[in-house]
Amino acid sequence: MAAKLAGGGGGAYALKQNAEINVTPFVDILLVLLIIFMVSVPMAVTAIKVDMPPPADVPAPKPPVFISIQTSGALFLGQEPTRLETLERDLVARFAANGQTGSKRDQKVMIRAQADVPYEAFMAVLDRVHAQGWTRVGVINEEIR
Question: What would the pLDDT profile of 50-92 be if each residue is shown by its tens digit?
Fold first, then answer.
């Protein structure tokens, strides 16, 4: 009786190298996902008709008041000259003239300055406007065309 311990042909139980990829499980998974999407997509696009009321007439927003600062330090409220000390009174008068007598928080103020205005002058105007209660303050940094 002879026994073969190592090497050689191996007979019926020899393992051979398999260089092919088994794609059958991958194809099965893709087909299952395709069926799931085909079944679920028509349910996701169902629409419900909703009768919405017509939009209410929304009043046009009120125009802002412009504060201009020149290089010389001169302040203008629109086209009218003003001073830093009387800025609050002039702003209240301008908003009243425009029909905006509500809260200062709802009123818009836009500040524009020439390019070579000192930073301190610009910040003094901005701080004064903000300290007087106007919180909707915008800064214009370019000429609007």
Answer: 888 888 887 777 888 999 999 888 999 988 999 999 999 999 9
> What is the total residue count of the chain?
145
**Parallel, antiparallel, or unpaired: how do β-strands 108-113 and 80-82 relate?**
unpaired
d(CA 134, CA 145): 27
Asked whether the whole model's pTM tops 0.85, one would answer no
One domain, residues 31 and 72: no
Residues 80, 25 share a domain: no
First to last CA, the chain: 105
How many C-beta atoms surround the C-beta of residue 68 within 10 A? 20
- Say how many domains are in the chain: 2
CB count within 10 Å of CB 108 equals 17
DSSP code per residue over 16-83: --------HHHHHHHHHHHHHHHHHHHHHT------PPPPP-PPPPPPPEEEEE-TTS-EEETTEEE-
The pair of three-digit structure tokens given for residue 16, joined into one six-digit string: 């051979």
